[in-house]
Design a protein that fits this description.
The protein is of the alpha+beta class and 648 residues long. It contains twelve helices and 29 strands. Among the domains are: 89 residues, no CATH class; 128 residues, no CATH class; 136 residues, Immunoglobulin-like, CATH 2.60.40. Helices cover 21% and strands 31% of the residues. The radius of gyration is 30 Å and the shape is elongated.
């Protein structure tokens, strides 16, 4: 190898390269087994360097004893590595062609070959970026750690976060230190995040990440295809809001107080009890955190009152609608958690939704085999919001923060208008752009064989060889994805066109709240019939109107919620629109702890039953309370319905 390197140094004169250069990038092209990798290094004088190589690493030694190691390990046991064929040198690209659809290459070498085993602790590394003639080669020191939640815990192909020592472009994407490598292991097509990001940007959801793909090697081991993405953070090249007074938030159970109770930067929202984390500003004081919570509660109360004008003064409604529509189109059930719902408020501005992020639980993902399965695209008729979003008759229960505004006629009309503006191009335009990335993954390449012949391969083939998924292949799954998106768009067109429009807007600000009284109900529950009883609990409109002291009830101004035993408001979590499971104490709880339940898609007629494993005929009576909340010209009138269950 030393003889080859010495001979190569003689080639400099033939390229017109003198031993002393003006400072420029020297690109070292390592050619092995039919593939070429390029690693740049800034030099002023070629005589500073001697060269060496063994079976694992090609090294450049500076004469002042500062060793620079070209970070490309060679592992002869790895089918994706072999001995070096040759090494050549060239100057930097004269001009970038910037074809972003190609599959580029990242080679990451950790200090002392350290494993990347933590989501918290970074490992020092050197990162070389092969732009494949489209973008400048780059090579920088930095650090790397794991990232993600379920994707880090459950899957062999790990996602990563990298941080350069200094701000740097990544394959033409604007300068920053922080970058994300998405493994997309759950997604055989590699296109679910791509289609979502392309569509989100086209719909006007701001600051959504650009897309690049790269094959990644870590310490010489082929790790497969990764999607390079921007880290969601505040900055001029990211979420570009005022760094003194801007706020970046995320609705997320993992970053919120549910899974991160000690982080000091999160809370449950005051009105809808959603898990919220503050991504910016950093290093919050308790007073700052409380102020952010109080400010957001103003928006929540405006949404709860379904006051269009109040909401419009606080929130960018088009971005809210666009996010709702994208979540529904891609059937991203993690809206129900919620997870990865970002929104920001710039100095003097409104709450705005974006960037769009994290879609590998959408597209009708089969959660029943989530640890090992990769099943998507089965049923295009399931929905988050159903045919009546205000009544929440969909297949998932999302926070009413996302659906209460459907009780406002002006909002529903705007929602439909915004959908009509995009529906004709939503699939066709954005799939055409997605297809260019599909083509990049399937770009045919030539690989030399040991016998001097040639094999034809693609990045997608190499990915599938490295990560075989239950006999699935990207081509078949991508075909399913396209068909699912087409069918779902046609289905939603009919559904959204027929969303109910309330007879009035309910735009009266809530000025006071009044408790009007309690209606008592009593039912006998047949223990042996268990979950489904034959009768119903009914409340007549006339009885309720008399208690609320109104001449007649407008359903669009009515809400119905379960109450806990202390009178606090619970969430509607039953299978129907309204209702919940109640435990022995009369508090709302999940099914596993529940004793009795109430559920209904109707405000006035409710099904009920019991959990036969949690209660018995010898139990004392159970009590559950539902509360009507009626906006009567700015007065929120409350009426409780207390139901006593006698188990027999």
């Amino acid at each position: 190898m030393r003889r080859v390197l010495s001979a190569l140094l003689l080639l400099f004169s033939s390229f017109g390269l003198s031993s002393t250069w003006a400072q420029d990038w020297l690109h070292v092209h390592v050619n092995y087994d039919g593939y070429e990798w390029a690693f740049p290094y800034s030099i002023t004088d070629i005589s500073y360097f001697d060269f060496d190589a063994d079976s694992t690493t090609f090294q450049m030694h500076r004469s002042d004893n500062q060793r620079f190691v070209i970070p490309f390990a060679l592992n002869k046991e790895d089918s994706y590595s072999s001995a070096i064929d040759s090494i050549t040198f060239s100057a930097s690209l004269a001009e970038e062609t910037k074809n972003k659809y190609k599959i580029f290459a990242l080679n990451i070498t950790t200090e002392d070959g350290a494993d990347i085993s933590s989501k918290v602790d970074y490992v020092r590394c050197y990162i070389s970026i092969d732009g494949r003639g489209e973008y400048q080669y780059d090579s920088r020191p930095g650090k790397i750690r794991g990232r993600g939640n379920s994707t880090w815990l459950w899957y062999d192909k790990k996602p990563y976060r990298i941080k350069f020592d200094t701000s740097s472009k990544m394959l033409g994407i604007d300068n920053n230190r922080d970058w994300v490598l998405l493994a997309n292991y759950r997604d055989v097509t590699d296109m679910m995040n791509v289609f979502a990001s392309i569509t989100a940007k086209w719909m006007g959801i701001p600051f959504t990440t650009p897309i690049r793909f790269a094959e990644v090697f870590i310490n010489g081991e082929y790790k497969g295809i990764y999607q390079i993405a921007e880290q969601v953070e505040v900055g001029g090249n990211r979420v570009a809001i005022d760094e003194d007074e801007g706020v970046l938030l995320t609705l997320d159970v993992d970053d919120g107080p549910v899974e991160s109770p000690n982080s000091g930067d999160n809370f449950f929202t005051s009105v809808y009890n959603m898990p919220m984390a503050v991504k910016y500003p950093k290093d919050l004081t308790n007073a700052q955190l409380q102020q952010i919570k109080d400010d957001f509660a103003v928006l929540e109360n405006a949404i709860k009152s379904r006051n269009y004008h109040a909401v419009d003064s606080l929130m960018d409604i088009p971005s809210y609608i666009a996010m709702d529509q994208l979540q529904e189109y891609l059937y991203n059930v993690e809206l129900a958690a919620p997870r990865s719902i970002f929104l920001f408020r710039d100095k003097g501005g409104k709450y705005t939704f974006g960037p769009a992020w994290d879609w590998d639980a959408g597209y009708d993902f089969d959660w029943s085999n989530m640890y090992t399965g990769h099943t998507f695209f089965t049923n295009y008729r399931e929905t988050l919001f159903g045919s009546d979003p205000y009544r929440q008759n969909g297949d998932y229960r999302v926070s009413k923060f996302f659906t209460d505004m459907f009780g406002n006629a002006q909002f529903v009309q705007q929602y439909k208008e915004q959908w009509n503006q995009i529906k004709d191009s939503l699939y066709i335009r954005n799939w055409a752009e997605t297809q260019r990335y599909v083509d990049g993954l399937n770009e045919l390449q030539t690989k030399k064989t040991n016998k001097g012949g040639a094999d034809y391969t693609t990045p997608q083939i190499r990915e599938e060889e490295r990560w075989p998924i239950r006999n699935m292949n990207a081509s078949t799954e991508t075909g399913k994805m396209k068909k699912w998106l087409e069918n779902r768009l046609a289905y939603l067109n009919g559904l959204i066109a027929n969303y109910p429009e309330p007879e009035d807007g309910g735009d009266d600000d809530i000025k006071e709240t009044k408790m009007m009284g309690t209606i008592q109900k009593s039912v006998n529950v047949n223990y042996w019939s268990g979950y489904r009883q034959s009768g119903q609990i009914s409340v007549s409109k006339e009885e309720l109107a008399a208690l609320l002291e109104v001449e007649s009830i407008r359903d669009s101004r009515m809400n119905l919620v379960p109450l806990n035993s202390d009178g606090s408001e619970g969430n509607n979590t039953a299978a129907g629109t309204y209702g919940a499971w109640f435990d022995y104490e009369g508090d709302t709880n999940d099914w596993s702890w529940g004793h009795v339940y109430i559920e209904s898609n109707d405000l006035y007629n409710w099904n009920y039953g019991c959990h036969p494993d949690n209660c018995s005929p010898w139990d004392e009576s159970h009590v559950a309370t539902m509360q009507y909340q009626y906006n009567d010209s700015g007065t929120l009138k409350l009426a409780n319905v207390k139901v006593t269950f006698h188990i027999q």
